[in-house]
Design goal:
Length: 93
Amino acid sequence: MEEMTDINRELMLDANATAGLLTEIFGTEMTASPTECAGCGNEGAIGELLAFTQGPGIVLRCSACENVVLRIVQTPDAIYLDARGAVYLRLAR
Ligand SMILES: [Zn+2]
């Protein structure tokens, strides 16, 4: 059954491994913040997303359908955030 997925689970990170980076980007603790998957409508905390390292970036996938919800790529002078897989992100004031 494992061959049925294109996801290499050996590359999976602990979700909390990305917490520091998310805090750096958004300026607030994000792991408990809710988000909604644009692929299947699953709602959950960002900390519940499946985090993978792929090449230079970090990919956060939906835990229900494995759709890519967030993609983060860091360069020496910028951080690129691709959030097209999320219906929304919620940042607490
Ligand atoms: Zn989903």
